[in-house]
Amino acid sequence: MDIETLATELERTIQKSKEHSKHFSQEIQRLQFEKREIEKEFQDKIAILKQNLLDSLGVEEAVETDSFIVSKNYPNTKSQTTYKLEFPTDKELNERLIQYFKNYDASLIKEDITYKPIQKNIKQLIIEGQFHISDNGFLVDNNGEIIPDMKVTVKKVEPKVKVKKTSLNNKSRHEN
User: Fold this and answer.
1) Cβ atoms of residues 108 and 156 within 8 Å
2) Which of 16, 53, 61, 135 is 20 to 30 Å apart from 115, CA to CA?
C-alpha cells in the first residue's frame, strides 16, 4: 500500500472509531437515565409499601401472619447515622452558621480552604443531648438558641419484615 492509501485508511478508521464511541456513549447515557428512572419507581413503591405496613401496624409493635413477622424498627438515637444534617448552600447563610459554631465551640468546624462544620462532632452533640431537634427540624442548643440556617432530618420508624421459617422449609433443609 502506498502512503496515500494508508493515510486515507487511517483517517477513515479514526472517524469510524469516533462514531462508534459517540454511539456507545449515547447508549450508555440512555441506559443510565433509564436505570435511574426505574430505580426511582421502585424506591417510591417501596416507600409507599413500607408506609402502608406501618399504617397497618397502627399502635401494635409487632404482628404475626402465616408467613411473616412484621414489627416496627426504631432508629437508634445513639447512632450518628440516624441524623442527616442539612447545611445552607447560600454563602452568606453558611458564614452565619460558621460564625455561630466558632462562638459555640470551635471544634465543630474545620478550616480547609474555607471553614466547614464537622458533621460527626455536631451529630455527637445531638446524641449527648447538648443539641436538640425542634418539631420543624431546626437544631437548638442548650440555651434554647436556634442554630442558624441548619436543619436536621431524623430517620423514621420503618417496618421490619421477617419471613417465618415453615416446617416445610425446615424439612427440605434437613433432607439436604
Assistant:
1) no
2) 135
